[in-house]
Design goal:
With about 400 residues, chain A is α+β, with helices and mostly antiparallel strands. Helices cover about 55% and strands about 20% of the residues of chain A.
Chain lengths: ~400, ~240
């Protein structure tokens, strides 16, 4: 312990003697560590944003899209011709046990009017379960219910953006809005979800009961049909199974012959998002790796300066060995010196890295995320760089021949 | 009973590339506890090589060297370092103090490697410094001290671990004659009052005359070894030993 303390004092004194040199050597580590901190923060920020988006989209989510039907040799694209019905949705829920919720939907764009305000938005006719599946919560009011579906009542839920644009400061609950000239009572306002992965405003929407949408708004062209069915599986493990069960069930219900193509398609959105999350992970790993290289370069700077220091202090080392310093005393002295350099550099690098990241995210609006683990990791990494690159010079010093070292000018 | 220092048939050969240089050619010598030996000889006579071996800084090529019965031949670097630390005090021509380090801390150095506590280091170093007349100069740095004072710090450093032997390699080589005499007075006092064995290398005859015994090296061999008259102007009884 006394030896460690003595070693620390010797190291600090040696570093103070060459302040400029020590500062420049530290700069290498400072840049390295702050780069690692900043890159990890940017990488994990991107990852966290994607994870957040997955959560807001809804987990374990399958989307069944209607369409791709063939009519007289002409093939239509997915979703252009509705081929699904609300009964398909009900059948999926009833016959596949691993399905937790279903929500068919029929969407369309319409002009909404309140008083002298009007706003064009996406009207989504659906089931109440959509709130569960898509992770929506209500900011105020109540959801619509099964009774509203059964009775095709004219009630609606407003997205945050719509509520703001039509009502400004007024409380929308209980007010009447006109969608395609049909009066609807606002029963609830949805809590904000912000932008989707694709940059669209998820809050710019209105939910109405599916039956109301079919009868009053968009059902005229293809009566009883829906565009898509959102299906939530009970757990992520059964997604593949549910997907094939849905396919089998719908083929049977739509009486599709074995040699015919499906008139619907099933998409696993969660899978798409996880692969996005994975690529974000790879990106943050890459960024971290590139930043680590600068840390290693900083380490080489330490090694370089320690070698110079050992040469300069050959005589001092000779004196120490002559009066009884053992190899490990000298080794420790120089290791502590490089460790102090790298750890002080590391600590400053953490500060600068965090400050730099905050500035970066303020100016670029990039999502960033700090974690204690990343900071500790960078600090430990800088420490091990100090030990690793300090070891060779320190060992060289500890193996000096005292007679030659004492004669060194 | 065995002698304090026993040297038998010591040979040291340096190989400088192709050429082999015989620095020591069969040197034999005994030194008893409490002696003050001055070794003289021209440059290249092998006296420095001999001192390095006595100081466990170097191994002989052949022959035997025992200090208080300890043979350094089969000891590791670290074991030799420990012997130097406990038994040997070095005083060099160029003082060899650590710069930018106070006198006290310089003297503490052997104690640091002996693993002494900070308080004990301070106490013993302070004592050693007052022993050489530097009380009150503890916190001066080497560049604030005169040559003679620096050498006294070095002597205090050599003494601080209470070694069995003091090895001095031209301790007055960088000093003027008045300061040299002061340093030699200190050596004499340490030898007579504290009974410390001293072996000293010097070029100068009048410095050598402070020693009780003079040895002369030439071409790697001892050519003369005689008991010296104690200088009439020096401390002591002034009789032939």
């Amino acid at each position: 312990m006394t030896r460690l303390l003595a070693g620390l004092r010797i190291a600090l004194r040696a570093l103070m003697v060459n302040k400029m040199r020590s500062a420049l050597t530290m700069l290498g580590i400072i840049i390295g560590v702050s780069a690692v901190i900043a890159m990890i923060a940017v990488g994990s920020g991107a990852k966290a944003r994607i994870a957040e988006q997955i959560a807001s989209m809804g987990s374990n989510l399958l989307i069944v899209l209607s369409g791709s039907s063939t009519s007289g040799g002409i093939r239509f694209g997915t979703g252009t011709v509705p081929t699904l019905t609300a009964d398909d949705a009900k059948a999926i829920l009833a016959e596949i046990p691993a399905v937790k919720y279903v929500a068919p939907n029929l969407t369309g764009v319409a002009q909404v009017v309140f008083g002298n305000q009007n706003w064009s938005t996406i009207i989504n006719g659906t089931f109440p379960e959509v709130l569960e599946i898509r992770n929506w919560s209500l900011a105020s009011g109540r959801p619509f219910t099964q009774q509203d579906i059964d009775g095709a009542t004219k009630v609606c839920l407003l997205g945050k953006t719509v509520a703001e644009n039509l009502f400004g400061g007024i409380d929308p609950i209980g007010q009447i809005v006109r969608i395609k000239k049909v009066p609807f009572t606002v029963v609830g306002v949805l809590a904000s979800k912000g932008q989707s992965t694709y940059g669209t405003d998820q809050d710019d929407t209105i939910f109405v009961p599916l039956t109301t949408a079919q009868k009053r708004l968009f059902g005229m062209q293809f009566p009883g049909m829906v565009r898509a069915i959102a299906v939530q599986a009970r757990e992520p493990e059964v997604m593949k199974e549910v997907e094939s069960q849905i396919t089998a069930l719908l083929r049977q219900r739509h009486r599709i012959q074995p040699n015919q193509e499906n008139d619907f398609s099933v998409r696993n959105l969660t899978e798409v998002m996880s692969s996005a999350e994975q690529s974000a992970s790879v990106m943050s790993l890459l960024l971290g790796a590139i930043a680590s290289i600068s840390l290693i370069v900083g380490g080489i700077g330490i090694m370089n300066i320690m070698l110079v220091s050992v040469t300069e202090r050959t005589r001092e080392i000779g004196i120490r060995i002559a009066v009884g310093a053992k190899g490990r005393d000298i080794l420790l002295q120089f290791l502590i010196e490089s460790l102090v350099l790298s750890l002080i550099g590391g600590a400053m690098g953490i500060g600068i890295g965090i400050a730099g990241t905050l500035i970066l995210s303020t100016f670029t609006q990039w999502p960033t995320l700090f974690s204690i683990q990343a900071v500790l990791l960078a600090f430990l990494f800088s420490g091990s760089v100090g030990v690793f690159f300090g070891f060779y010079p320190a060992r060289k010093a500890s193996l000096l021949n005292p007679i030659e070292a004492l004669r060194y000018e | 009973m065995e002698s304090f220092i026993q040297v038998r048939d010591l040979v040291k050969v340096y190989s400088l590339g192709e050429v082999e240089v015989q620095a020591l050619r069969s040197v034999s010598l005994t030194v008893e506890r409490g002696e003050f030996v001055a070794i003289m000889g021209a440059s290249g006579s092998g006296k420095s090589t001999f001192m390095n071996i006595l100081g466990f800084l170097d191994h002989p090529t052949s022959g035997q060297y025992l200090l208080e019965g300890i043979n350094g031949k089969n000891l590791s670097r670290d074991e030799l370092a420990e012997i130097r630390n406990r038994k040997i005090g070095f005083v060099f021509q160029g003082f060899n103090l650590l710069s930018r380090t106070s006198a006290l801390e310089n003297v503490e150095l052997p104690l640091v490697y002996a693993g002494a506590s900070a308080s004990k280091r301070k106490e013993m170093s302070g004592k050693a410094l007052s022993e050489v007349g530097l009380k009150g100069r503890e916190h001066h740095h080497p560049n604030q001290l005169s040559g003679g004072e620096q050498q006294r710090v070095a002597i205090a450093r050599a003494l601080v671990n209470q070694p069995s032997i003091l090895l001095a390699d031209e301790p007055t080589g960088n000093l003027d004659s008045k300061t040299s005499e002061e340093i030699m007075r200190i050596f004499q006092r340490l030898n007579q009052d504290l009974g410390i064995t001293i072996i000293m290398i010097t070029h100068e005859l009048d410095i050598a005359s402070f020693g009780k015994r003079n040895i002369i090296f030439r071409d790697g061999k001892i050519v003369d070894d005689h008991v010296n008259f104690v200088r009439s102007d020096a401390v002591g009884e002034g009789v032939k030993r």
